[in-house]
Amino acid sequence: xxxxxRILSLLSLSAKGRNLVSGEFMAEKAIKEGTAKVVIVSEDAxxxxxxxxxxxxxxxxxxxxxxxxxxxxxxxxxREMRASLAVTDAGMAANIIGHLEER
Length: 103
What we know:
5 helices, alpha+beta, CATH 3.30.1330.30, about 15% strand, four-stranded mixed beta sheet, about 55% helix
């Protein structure tokens, strides 16, 4: 399985297990509450959105990655386009981080 397919599959599993929140508002809330273990922002998100999440995550020492397109992220979790996702399960987040760092 391709690395990208594997990462999107892991995001899909996280969504089905309710270990993922999506959308700017919910992802930001998870970051501020400290429940986000890794944040993924789409590569085609606006520069302002990327900077906003990068700054928030760096301040709270949460890993942030810029990955895939909005349509791909949304499709992986069974939703419309999504510019940001936050994984809330530590084990799943570690697995996703491992795959993202290998690419």
